[in-house]
Specification:
The chain is an alpha+beta fold. The protein contains seven helices and 19 strands. A hairpin with an 8-residue loop joins strand 1 and strand 2.
């Protein structure tokens, strides 16, 4: 759990997460006679210390394969045995926090350019970065500019707080989302939360390949645990619900020093609720979830929905609304008494973990720093790292 606002010591630069520039779609294969087009991807999912999922879609069925290795000569490959237009290939037996080159292949023809990803940090790697942003559902040009800024930071992975698109049942909107996110998702695994605008659509579950039941799930990265919830109006999260029971069990079982939770509708925020049902949802979430977060030492809670940036400090837990990914911005009305920062701006939040230190920087689409904080946790709670006395 966070122990205050003490500034961290200067951190050593994180290992770079650079990858070659990717070709944009539609991309023909090198075999022009076939004219096979890449409609979606490649995009990375569910990165772990020893595995990752690579997904893509072509305009017609083909036999898919991923070639990969620690150099551009690759040396290893995994084939999708099924003939189809959509391919989902899992690479296993990988080394933790290691840069791998990869390329997707269909019917023996390469699709696009060489790309690269970094596997997740294992428990003995406590230095990494990630980005959190959300509400990318409209204003595609703004969404593009936010993604371009994120790419400049080279995060190891990305969390999305929901409302990826305006209408989760519209395949055209999903096509636009994946096109805008193409270069980012080819380099860094995206872990999204369901928003109300996804509307519980089956398309969300077709396109994303996430841990657990994909609605609420958890994963570890380095010395941190991440917990995604479904707080979007389409799932029960109150006491007695399946999700609530799962959440408490997950929090109880946590042994990681850093603990983060993210979902769509926030518990706190100065932007008023959209409607009475959302106001009721916020009140229910405050009563049901906030006590769990405080009891089990959650460090930060990320949400979206209220199109702005806001940070509230409540009973030792930092609540961040990051909903400036492209949807029209909202005005705040009545300031939350726990508010520590607010900005009506398109933005994302960059988080840098270095052992027991965390640095969070909120960056606008123009590159301006909107908010910044540094925190430290009790070093006694950190796991033993090789080389320590």
């Amino acid at each position: 759990m966070l122990v205050g606002l003490t500034a961290c010591l200067p951190a050593a630069p994180a290992a770079p997460t650079l990858a070659p520039t990717l070709t944009h779609t539609p991309v023909p294969t090198s075999g022009q006679s076939r004219g096979l087009l890449l409609l979606r991807g490649p995009y990375l999912q569910s990165v772990a210390a020893n595995s990752i999922i690579v997904a893509w879609e072509t305009d017609r069925p083909s036999h898919g394969e991923v070639v990969y290795g620690e150099a551009e000569e690759y040396g290893a490959s995994v084939a999708d045995p099924a003939l189809g237009a959509r391919h989902v290939v899992t690479l296993t037996g990988l080394a933790p926090y290691t840069l791998y080159h990869y390329r997707i292949v269909s019917d023996g023809e390469p699709l696009g350019a060489d790309a690269a990803f970094r596997t997740a940090a294992g428990p003995d790697q406590a230095e990494f970065t990630f980005v959190v942003f959300g509400d990318t559902r409209t204003q595609h040009q703004v969404h593009r500019e936010v993604v371009a800024r994120i790419l400049e930071q080279g995060p190891d992975f990305v969390l999305h707080t929901g409302d990826l698109v305006d209408n989760g049942w519209d395949t055209g909107q999903w096509a636009a989302f994946f096109e805008i996110e193409r270069e980012l998702m080819a380099r860094a695994s995206l872990f999204p939360a369901l928003g109300n605008h996804e509307s519980n659509s089956p398309l969300y579950f077709d396109f994303f390949h996430l841990p657990g039941n994909e609605r609420w799930y958890t994963f570890d990265y380095g010395n941190a645990r991440f917990v995604c919830l479904q707080v979007d109006g389409f799932a029960d999260f109150g006491p007695g619900s399946e999700q609530y029971g799962w959440l408490e069990e997950t929090l109880v079982a946590n042994t990681q020093p850093w603990l983060f939770v993210y979902f769509h509708v926030p518990l706190y925020g100065s932007v008023p609720p959209h409607s009475a049902p959302f106001a009721e949802m916020e009140e229910t979430a405050q009563r049901a979830l906030a006590p769990l977060f405080e009891r089990y030492g959650v460090d930060m809670v990320f949400s979206g929905h209220k199109h702005s940036y806001e940070r509230n400090e409540v009973n030792g837990v930092t609540y961040i609304v990051t909903a400036g990914g492209g949807a029209p911005l909202y005005w705040a009305r009545e300031r939350e008494p726990t508010q520590a920062a607010f900005a009506r701006a398109y933005h994302f939040v960059l988080l840098e973990i270095d052992g027991d230190c965390l640095k969070a920087t909120t960056i606008s689409v123009e590159g301006e720093v909107l908010d910044q904080l540094e925190r430290r946790i009790d070093a006694a709670t950190l796991p033993f790292l090789p080389g320590q006395d």
